[in-house]
Amino acid sequence: MIKTVASVGLPVGESWNIYKNRLVPEAVTGKEKRISIVTGVHGDELEGQFVCYEINRIIRENKDYLKGIVDIYPALNPLGIDSITRGLPGYDIDMNRIFPGDEEGAVSEHIASEIMADISGSDFCVDLHASNIFLREIPQIRMSEAYADKLIGYAKLMNVDLVWVYENAVVLDSTLSHGLNSIGVPTFVVEMGVGMRITKTYGKQLTEGILCLMKELGIWTGETVIPKEPMISYNRKLGLLHAESPGIFMPLVEHLGTVRENQPIGQILNPLTGTILEEVVSPIDGLVFTLREYPVVSAGSLLARVLGGEQA
Hints:
Elements: E1 2-9, E2 15-23, E3 34-39, H1 47-61, E4 69-73, H2 78-83, H3 107-119, E5 124-128, E6 135-144, H4 148-155, E7 162-166, H5 176-182, E8 187-193, H6 200-216, E9 231-232, E10 236-242, E11 247-251, E12 258-259, E13 264-270, E14 275-281, E15 286-292, E16 296-297, E17 302-310
Parallel strand pairs: 3-4, 3-5, 5-8, 6-7, 7-9
Antiparallel strand pairs: 1-2, 2-4, 6-8, 6-15, 10-17, 11-13, 11-16, 12-15, 13-14, 15-17
InterPro entries: AstE_AspA_cat, N-alpha-Ac-DABA_deacetylase
Pfam family, one: AstE_AspA_cat
GO molecular function: hydrolase activity, acting on ester bonds; metal ion binding
């Protein structure tokens, strides 16, 4: 059942409409648990679109297994998706920095408050993101350490490669996930792939994970995979590689590859002179879980992240 979550009039006779698809079991008791699956808060992050399609398709083809309510929000920022813009076009605003919003505030804040109100009461929320156009990420869950104790068990069901627990930062207090966690809706963020693209294998991997989570919540009774055992960032070394020179970055390793300390990760080239400006080496032994996708770099550009072993 398609429902309108929010609708606001815009200039030139247009409107900003946010929709969800509510999937319910054939026999409703009134005691069903509810999961919300949201994506598209950034208009250049499209990986979640395929996941929404797959969840819709699987439930539609296996309706007997559905025992709870699934709300699917494929486009929280439809204006951004339509214009391939990360933020809200025309407003120069990152939508994921205005939650929980304000019903009486500006248009964007009003929309944010409507989204919060609609998701409120869910038993769980999965907030699907992709990387930006510059970096490729393995399927991972990111969560604030403030909520890690409550969320980590569910994260292990999600069939991801990594669970990254980060220290709380003030800027993240205005995200959708923080806003929902603060009102009692358990929520974590999934990051995967690369901006403006869809990685089908990642989408299928996450779809299987969401079904595992739904089964744990009593929303789904169909067969599910045995989820991957994710790496967890607690007490692990983290190597960050940034460019020291502007130029063209050419990686020498594969995404998801393992590297040794001081092993070359890539080179920064100068096409004008045909010279190598910088040899980029790994600071630690570990797994390359983030790798630069877009080759043009400036001084300070992030090139890779390497997840190492446990801290000594």
